[in-house]
Amino acid sequence: MTLNASTDGSASRTALIIGGGPAGLTAAYELVSRAGIRPVVCEKLDILGGIARTVNYKGNRIDIGGHRFFSKSDRVMDWWNKMMPFQQTATAVQHVDYQGESRSVSVTDSADPEKRDDVMLLRSRRSRIYFMRRFFDYPVSLSRNTIVNLGLLRMVKIGLGYLRARLFPIQPEVTLEDFFVNRFGRELYSTFFESYTEKVWGLPCSKLSAEWGAQRVKGLSISKAIFHAVRSILVRDRGISQKTMETSLIEQFLYPKYGPGQMWELCAEKIKSLGGEVAMKVEVQKLFLEGNRIRAVEVVHPSDGKVERVEADYFFSTMPVRDLVEALESGGAEVPARVLETARGLPYRDFITVGLLLSDLKVKPKKAEGVALIRDNWIYIQEPDVIVGRLQIFNNWSPYLIADPSKVWVGLEYFCNEGDQLWSRSDEELASLAREELSRIGIIDHGAVLDSTVIRVEKTYPAYFGAYNQFDRIRTYLDPIENLFLIGRNGMHRYNNQDHSMLTAMTAVDNIIAGVTDKTNIWAVNTEQEYHEESERKKSL
């Protein structure tokens, strides 16, 4: 196979995009549909979607990491709706409360999942914490269940710890531990946040940057959780986007019928129908820099070992920053030693999902719920005697993810480092570990496992330690390269949500259309602030 980055007469310019995840495919679609630029997407795997892909195992589909489709950005919500219509229901789609507005959606804009596949389902969100072999609400609430499960003494300690944190906050707020303690108090932090977070990163929270909390937990606190609980009793916000709520409090989300990968596979088909190219199993190994512009890349086709040079006008990178800097070949001065050193010191956390097909779960819902399966999308495993971090129940993401609806299809999430002891275990050993751990903590009976599969994902989480505090060195070096755009989670070494990654791609394309070479507004797409609205975007151009 030979990539074709030349134009066919319908476009005068081309763009090469490294990576076929949400950011890369969004950039490609925006380029070909709005900018008249022909995109060529190079994806090194044989599956699209990045970590938002859907893996099909014997008709049972796995969502890597879990992807709720919601956004505080009108632009992203509208983009998703144009790509896949929202599910047709009497209450959600024909009459949608969204962004403070009441919208009627015609039948042609909606869909019945029983009659067509390209549908976004409206799903209810439920996440809980599993600790002391009991379930707790997530976010933690002052419910009767919480008080009974924790006991009076621990509740008093939590209350005093929270009061102390409010009166005497840690200043300056440097570490992730500081961040959590300031918002929840030390006792509640130790009870519900410390163990899980350290499972994710493999380091104490005192060694992690507070910036991770600012991006992922944002404004959530005990006071806001209490406010939300009271508000939910008085006022029901049924809008799909629920813009005014903290991300961790969203109660509804949209979800493709066959998982997140369906969105990106459909997006790729539309890109190709508009004249773009999406090449699978093609890896970019080198980027050739001349002055302040990338002139070409060198790609390899692993299937036959063929090496190819591809030229383009623009280059978008979603590959890990560490790999990008290593791949730069300059016709003039070499990449500065300090930039290389910083890039090589950027850490990542890797990820394993063990899918288990079960006859049933041992834990059951309350009889009043009237269903046979608990309603959780995922469960945070806070138990210190197991290493599993989180449990997904795929039946509750979409009933269409399961080949046999009478079975239970779950994913156990393990956090590790590529090449470490856990990563290096065989699939059989990992499946056995998953079975044993769920059985030990009382979620399944040991004999309930019918089948299993194992998926390893490299560089799932760009980490906020190591050389990350010198990341500005990399930006200072790469930002002046006029036709190179770093977008997405790994492309920017930021723990982005899916919609955040998409917005970085959209903003980069906006800049090209407007002739803006400064990259500041791309980096400003940040989960610490409100996502850019259309009016704000126009001001920045």
Provide structural commentary:
With 541 residues, this protein is α/β, with parallel strands linked by helices. Helix content is 32%, strand content 24%. The protein has 17 helices and 24 strands. The strands form seven sheets. Strands 11-10-20-21-22-19-23 form a seven-stranded mixed sheet. Strands 13-2-1-17-24 form a five-stranded parallel sheet, covered by helices on one side. Strand 10 (127-131) and strand 11 form a beta hairpin. Helix 11 (337-344) crosses helix 13. The longest helix has 17 residues, at 498-514. The chain starts with 12 loop residues before the first strand and ends with a helix.
Quickly describe the structure.
The protein is of the alpha/beta class. The chain contains 17 helices and 24 strands.
Keywords:
alpha/beta; seven-stranded mixed beta sheet; Polyamine Oxidase, Chain A, domain 2; 3 domains; FAD/NAD(P)-binding domain; five-stranded parallel beta sheet; protoporphyrinogen ix oxidase, domain 3; globular; disordered C terminus; 541 residues
